[in-house]
Amino acid sequence: xxxxxxxxxxxxxxxxxxxxxxxxxxxxxxxxxxxxxxxxxxxxxxxxxxxxxxxxxxxxxxxxxxxxxxxxxxxxxxxxxxxxxxxxxxxxxxxxxxxxxxxxxxxxxxxxxxxxxxxxxxxxxxxxxxxxxxxxxxxxxxxxxxxxxxxxxxxxxxxxxxxxxxxxxxxxxxxxxxxxxxxxxxxxxxxxxxxxxxxxxxxxxxxxxxxxxxxxxxxxxxxxxxxxxxxxxxxxxxxxxxxxxxxxxxxxxxxxxxxxxxxxxxxxxxxxxxxxxxxxxxxxxxxxxxxxxxxxxxxxxxxxxxxxxxxxxxxxxxxxxxxxxxxxxxxxxxxxxxxxxxxxxxxxxxxxxxxxxxxxxxxxxxxxxxxxxxxxxxxxxxxxxxxxxxxxxxxxxxxxxxxxxxxxxxxxxxxxxxxxxxxxxxxxxxxxxxxxxxxxxxxxxxxxxxxxxxxxxxxxxxxxxxxxxxxxxxxxxxxxxxxxxxxxxxxxxxxxxxxxxxxxxxxxxxxxxxxxxxxxxxxxxxxxxxxxxxxxxxxxxxxxxxxxxxxxxxxxxxxxxxxxxxxxxxxxxxxxxxxxxxxxxxxxxxxxxxxxxxxxxxxxxxxxxxxxxxxxxxxxxxxxxxxxxxxxxxxxxxxxxxxxxxxxxxxxxxxxxxxxxxxxxxxxxxxxxxxxxxxxxxxxxxxxxxxxxxxxxxxxxxxxxxxxxxxxxxxxxxxxxxxxxxxxxxxxxxxxxxxxxxxxxxxxxxxxxxxxxxxxxxxxxxxxxxxxxxxxxxxxxxxxxxxxxxxxxxxxxxxxxxxxxxxxxxxxxxxxxxxxxxxxxxxxxxxxxxxxxxxxxxxxxxxxxxxxxxxxxxxxxxxxxxxxxxxxxxxxxxxxxxxxxxxxxxxxxxxxxxxxxxxxxxxxxxxxxxxxxxxxxxxxxxxxxxxxxxxxxxxxxxxxxxxxxxxxxxxxxxxx
Length: 960
Hints:
Layout: H1 3-17, H2 20-26, H3 33-46, E1 60-62, H4 69-81, H5 86-94, E2 96-99, H6 103-121, E3 131-133, E4 160-165, H7 182-202, H8 213-225, E5 226-237, H9 239-242, H10 247-254, E6 256-264, E7 277-286, E8 292-299, E9 302-309, H11 310-313, E10 314-315, E11 321-322, H12 329-337, E12 348-352, E13 364-365, E14 371-374, E15 382-383, E16 391-392, H13 396-399, E17 410-414, E18 427-430, E19 434-436, E20 440-445, H14 454-461, H15 464-473, H16 481-485, H17 494-509, H18 513-528, H19 534-538, H20 566-582, H21 596-604, H22 616-619, H23 623-631, E21 639-640, E22 647-648, E23 661-663, H24 673-679, H25 692-700, H26 705-719, E24 723-726, H27 733-740, E25 744-750, H28 753-762, E26 767-770, H29 776-788, E27 793-796, H30 805-808, H31 817-829, E28 833-838, H32 849-859, E29 863-871, E30 879-880, E31 882-890, H33 913-917, H34 937-942, H35 948-957
Parallel strand pairs: 1-2, 1-4, 2-3, 4-5, 6-8, 14-19, 15-18, 21-23, 22-30, 24-25, 24-27, 25-26, 27-28
Antiparallel strand pairs: 5-7, 6-7, 8-9, 10-11, 12-20, 13-16, 14-16, 17-18, 17-20, 28-31, 29-31
């Protein structure tokens, strides 16, 4: 193993060894060495370091060093780009300065530095050749964390030619819920207060609101550690790009000669942080007015690159936000910026909801009054939730300064919407005599010369293009009034206002996806042909309006509701998949890399063994294993499969040896993606789309297609069903099995985009609707299409563990939301049957109360319901997977649902792991290779040599 790979392994193992609490409390997130190398190569290129003739003489600082990934990336680039003598290499090492508060990490860094010096430059170094310091700025590990730590504490040098770091992302706010001990909480809270007091004078660009160590380090590096001409690279949270609390620091950043802005999405392989990140490279010199800046957007292990003028990248109207988007989208942004903002229009009022839920709780009552209370969770696109059980006492109006607004129609949105949600802006029409809680924002409108009314405003603010605009500038889950103020509004003719208002009124009363598309298209057209600019509005122009030059057409791919280009992506991928299948190549032939410690564990476990077989000397290296040994964990943990038995349940974590029984029977690795798919009974021709986590989820959450086939056959033969709707479809296990049984799917729905693409690739004939089933537009589309095309079965897998009959009758009980949507669609369609799969234990959950209440709500719809627990290895699947299958049959059909469950076929002779995967154990992984010849009946089915019907016929006839 070369030293670079050793660094990657040590970094992974060390991160795993750190207690999550320690990482969280100190803001520790290690950079993957490959990302450090990518950033370093970019920095050398864009800041002209490659032109330095005496690179070895430049001073390099890593102030938050960790294991030294950036230092070693720096050495690697120099090795590749410069030809140094041994003396020059030694000078290079002498000019590297490293600081780190974690003494264990610093010790590992020192050892690795010796290895890199030897491998890259063939020099031997000792301690006197290195510059290693401790914590800088504030040391959260110390007994006096508020004591400022200058760099002069460690080195005589305090300014450097090159500074690169990934500082700690530590928000200095103590939250009581994160502490088990109240005294510890109070102590930490006091420490943070002292740090913020000290920092307020040291770091003027990092205000107390939103105080974070990464901000302090960024400011210190740019203002203290660097000199004119220094090169700087910072890997920090992406909040630096748009967040209001970062506006002063961001202004300082863009005053520099910024050369690259990179964006890394949340949960990337590159940094073990649950937030999106950005990296900024710059030269500490005055910014050139409108030079080009490299914009790099990472996704998984790939990236896109564009070269953007600074004037496009920096948005002055949004506190100098740095906008990262695809290259063509800057044109769209420029188009929207031509229209006035809501704050420029004096006839629009933008306010927070009038009732503070905490301070005014004495005005809230369950007894009906003339005033209904609306909270954020009641707000949906275009119209509110159904009836709400909470009311407001009329006396509240006397205490509210905003009481007059409650007498008229308004529109309102949620004040907090998860940052990952597709639709962040969701506005609803609010009738008079409805009181808005402070979890809502509202807009009201007065008469104006443009004829703009609430319905026009509602259509524009609910449009995809304005939602996209908002998301560009949003860095957290809040929807603040100041952000709403900055939303653009097209100014168009009175005729156009009336046209859009009419469509929106229809949308409020009778929502549909087609109507939503029309509204979205009109809004785009209006922005493209808006007759007034901000300047026109401010100058008070009236009816005579200047029409600007015709704007370029907007890329409408942004505006397609729900599908998000799924059909196009699936079609392009389908051609590639078809080619691989025609050439007998194995799809999704992916293995998973394990750490050195994982490999030691794997090698010690025999076929059929588990954690109990791991030697104590290895157990002592893992705190998790020590905990399992102490408590006596499940025998499937760290399990190795047995070739002659079925596998245990394939979950969404089959890439990790410690989360179940996923170690290959005879190979020292976990099972591959394709092996897991085979154990789930997906044929080799079934392709899974997405990143690693997407594929793990799709396979691990699926119903085995063989089970779907057997259930589908029973339904088709006994009920003569032919058309199905699939909800919570996932990758399509149940779907594909029922399709093979001869059932046509009218429409399928899931919220996960990658799963929907997988579904569409493998089932191109089906209409796949990607979106949240809680969205009324999605529900309306499903029900309308199901009724029109006469769906006679609805299948799916809604979660039910939070279900209660009492909560089911409350509109605002979040535990029932997804199950309730399944119920609503069954109620709206009234198919012959419905079927859904759920986790084992549902039948006995809460002593059977949950199951009985589920039966009751469907009994009220005239369905006879039964649930049965199936062990899938008894039904020709090579996996001991237990699931509950619930079947409901409409009463007028006089069919007992018990008769629709399949007959056990392999209870005496199971299909084994060997039957499923033996012929692919030796193939090369992570590339397309020829599928080896099948070995036995199951593999003949898996490799599409026989149909699923032929497979089941043979199983039945051989009397397994």
